[in-house]
Amino acid sequence: MFHFRGAIRLNYYNRCMLVLLVATFALLSFGCNRRYAEGSDSGKNIWGFGNNENSPYENTYKENKVTNAAENSYTFYSAKDFETLIFDSSNVRGDDIYSLAYQEGALNQLLTIKKSKAFTIENPLFIQNPFGTNSNGLYVYVGTPSQKVRISYKISVSTESIPDFGDSLYFNRTEGTEVEGQIIGLIEGQRNKVILIATDLNGKLISQMAYFFDIASTHEMETKLNTQYGEQPTFTRGLFSFFHKDGVNSSFLFYDNHGVLRANIPTKYQSEDAKVLQIKNEIFYAIKENEYILLDNLGNVIKRYTWEGHGKLFDCDYDDKNNKVIFLANTENDSMINRGVELNIAKGGWKEIINFAYLLPHRKSETNKEEGIEKDWLDLSSIQLINGKDILVCSKELSTVFRINNLYTGPVIRWLMSGDKNWNNKEYQSMLLTELGETTTKTSIDSMDYETNRRLSEGQFYLSCINYDTTDVANDTKYSVFYKYLIEDSQNRYRLIQKIDFPYHSGHCSSILYGNHIILSFDAEKQFIEYDEKGNAIATYQTGNKKAFYKVYKYTMDRYWF
Asked: What's in the keyword line of the UniProt record (predicted)?
């Protein structure tokens, strides 16, 4: 109920305005919590980001509430059968699934099958992993419905320890267009029950049918991680993702909240700490050293990019305002990560846009003089874009966060945030942000997360990080501390607004902020944990193999898979 001090009653006009405000607020709240949305596309994964989700641990494989589809009512090609069709119809071979020849061969074969008969919601087409880019993926095509529809699905297997998985299916919902998308979450080595549900835009059921597919095993990845739940787990919607390096056969793996593998994207990339970026309705990732691809929501490669400049590329972020990806890079003769390189997604052009050694000449000379040897005195480890023109970068070696303005037109250091006293000299002292309130320890920071929302004033944003090697001198113990700061750019200051202590873990520790939750990953223990905003563990996930394991991210994958 609303209470207005000093007002006895509202006149008709005010009552109308109140109803309008409440209705507007309700619509905004509904929009921010939807799992999907009609209208213009967005590449920032905001729909459902960090929202709480009920993830019941249930297995409905044996239930018979949904009618099983007759064998002659649908068409299914296994990954092996479809690959054979590709090879038989062209000169393509499977040594490089990301080659233009292989992808064109797969697409041509797919188009041939689609034209072979009239597929409908009642008579759909299914092809497992048609483009070779997700072994847990299932292409589905239901023709061109006469009305706008929504498609959702649920996958279950007979193994009771593997819970059901399902979501809405992302596709172009424009009336009169083909409806096709990629179901993810198939379990290899098992018979999968896939319930496909079609409704109109008002939720009225059009069709609901259960299909069964035998999916062969193609890899040795862990289907289910060892997962321990907190006392009252409240999950956030999304999929955990990390880069898994295993010799020449590496992968980007996606696990659900119960630690079950739901997508496996192959790559031959061999460097460290790679990740998948969502760019509008496509995804972008490395397939080899300095080679990247853009993949549509069906898993088909639509563009391939090769960096032919000097050195290697490392962490990157997407600039959605200019449709560019910005990389951190080193040079061919120097292992130091001290440059910024841009990739124009639309045109495919590459350009070096920043050299951090030129921005920090005094610090470079001082560091080399102190150490007495040449070393990576900077070691930039993470990058985040701001407003399509500025960036935040984090130096692992200096445990410092820099804001660089005018990225494309003339980069300058706007400010730096650090606890390192070596910055207190005449060249850089004026650039240091002032810390208000409690002074925090920043001696082992190598990544950060940038966040903003509509409640903040202009020039304000949140910055979070974890100081993973903090020492309690009095007790001679170590621990990790998560910090969330409010940055006030116009005032050149910042203050702590959230602080959570975590147990110390040997080796490297990374953090990301996902909604109000915190996700920590530990490469030495090959473990990651999701915490709520109070520091309570939601779930702990343990990988059982000895292969390389890197920073864990979490994505909604809305407007790509869902």
From this structure: Membrane, Transmembrane, Transmembrane helix
